[in-house]
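Check my protein:
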Amino acid sequence: MYDCSSITTYYITVDPEPFASLNVNVSAELWIPAVLRLDRDEYQIKLAFRGAHTRKFPKKSFQIQFTYPELYEGQREIHLNAEYADPSLIRNKLSFEFFAGIGVLSPQTHYVLLYINEAFAGIYLKLEAVDELFLQRRELPVGPIYYAVNSDANFSLLQSRTDEVKDALEAGYVRKYGTDDDDQRLRAFIYTINITPVAQFEEAIEKLLDVDSYLRWLAGAVCTQNLDGFIHNYALYQNSQTGCFAIIPWDYDATWGRNVNGRILHPNRLAIDGRNTLSARILDIPKFRQYYCEILENILQTQFTEHKLEPMITALHECLEPFIGLDPYKKALAEEFASEPAFILSFIGKRNAFLQEQLESFKKIN
């Protein structure tokens, strides 16, 4: 259950002229100095817009890097998501809680009331950055981390939009932590996915991929119907002890029945097997496909149900409701916000039924 007392207030003070310059070219990676006040403590920070498609929305999302002190609660960097296109403001939060519940490594999230130069900027969702400190806080072996920033992070040799051969196998990724040698290991991973013959694939992929984690992530992405999440909007982490890669979900606002612009999606828009090269190859192996079916069946019976998720949806909605009328980008949409819990619960019921039906057919594939 979400604790409403964890909603904190952030006060950012920034010179108006540099702040205005962020809007001159919203795609530019421009960082400006600012001050963040939390209670009575002040932190020197750098501030920038974050996201890709979402930068075009009126309500911007932000990245914050701490410069002095360099860490805040063990974090060097945090992300503030505007959730502009999500009329419920809870889809990202609900997704990460859902993923954690099915055993997928996920960022922690908390709601923030953001003021910029004393003006209320709105309700934001603070996302934990996925970096080496993220791993250290969980006592995991530090290893390379990549952000999948565009659709070429599709585990293929080909570009997703043109089907032309990629200029580089690591296209679509930005290295968040690691070395040039790690880039070579990423290239080898993608090459192995694509060129290994079927007869050798099972043995080869188990040496490079945490298959259990991947199949749980796949099940979560399929349940929440994140159409973009298979080719970007994730972090890729390689465990330095096992050498195996794992996926960490990222940016899951276009889920639970809506797309990246907030438009309604029918609950059967995404098939049970997802949509990327790695998933196709893994599910072609009978042992992996059977295990995926077992994982998904359990999730559909115990985790992805209206009964299981209704208390969290209600709690999140009730925590945010008092602030909707204050958010300059949401106050005119209070009626839509009020109807979103019922909409999300309806999506869960219909999506569950669709996946149950597909699961029966998927089990019969030889």
